[in-house]
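Thread: nicotinamide-adenine-dinucleotide complex, take 2
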Amino acid sequence: MTGPVLITGGAGFLGSHVCERFLAQGKEVLCLDNFITGAARNVEHLRDDPRFTLVEHDITKPYAAEPAPSLVVHMASPASPPAYLANPIPTLEVGSVGTINALNIARAANAPLLLTSTSEVYGDPEVNPQPESYRGNVSCTGPRSVYDEAKRYAEAAVMAYHRSYGLDTKIVRIFNTYGPRLAPGDGRAIPNFVKQALEGSPITIYGDGSQTRSFCYVDDLVRGILSLAESDEHDPVNLGNPDERTISELAQLILEYTGSSSEIVYRDLPEDDPKVRCPDITRARQILSWEPQVPLEEGLPRSIEWYRSEIGAS
Ligand code: NAD
Ligand code: UDP
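Output below.
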């Protein structure tokens, strides 16, 4: 099928890598972004490619895609907890109205749509690791609900378009992913800790640091997304690295790799902060033959190099 790959939120951290990978495959890419958390500079290196187009657009407003896209990748949404907590209504709107608009673009073009959902649909899980069949433990009124419930609604909308209209849809549930272009000021654990370590300021651990996360390097994740886009799988698929670590372990690794002598300070744990998180990737292994290849011990030093140049340049 001809027509560009339309990527909403393509000027964000993950979106910029997804744009890059589709261009590398020889595809045309139309990137839509309102820059609420992303930035044109994330895709600056792609601007000279005639197959790449960047349009400033808020996907909560309808968009007439011309020419018709061959695939819609709906990634637009604040993703960092401080970003969605600061933008609760835009987060709810992009997950709901924005997803319906993206689905209508795909439907009008008779093109497949891939939604980037999240491990946050599992909330503060009582099952660890989390398989796709786990229905989650989410507060529908707590502060994180603006993101968690928006993504759960987005998944429901995607499945409804699939069932009602036969739209070819895919849903990826992404677990914590990091790497170059995850902005130093984004507010998530890895950029915060690396920035603090490089600047010699205190490393801020929320709670006692015993909570766990499983960190996936961006190249692994993006390879999985492209593979899912080519598949015939319509039910949600987890993508993430099942190597589960405590936040204290993560802070220690970052201190080691940066050679920093920053002290560690403890701050209040945000409300509803999940105590554990680890993907069960059995389905991704079976359906996509996908496996993360970059361990934290490789991905972190690579990312730290990027942060060094980024922070040095700013
Ligand atoms: P990001 O904040 O860097 O990127 C999100 C992009 O969406 C930004 O460029 C932002 O400006 C854009 N955007 C937001 N609202 C928009 C709107 N109304 N119209 C147009 N553009 C809009 O975050 P990210 O980490 O790159 O996340 C990308 C996607 O992946 C999100 O959907 C997020 O929920 C999902 N995800 C990411 C992770 C992760 O670990 N990085 C984990 C789970 C899910
Ligand atoms: N966190 C922390 N210090 C920070 C930022 C985050 O201790 O400066 C903790 C946060 O409370 C959570 C974990 O690190 O338990 C991962 O947070 P992040 O914002 O990266 O992603 P989340 O998985 O919460 O969406």
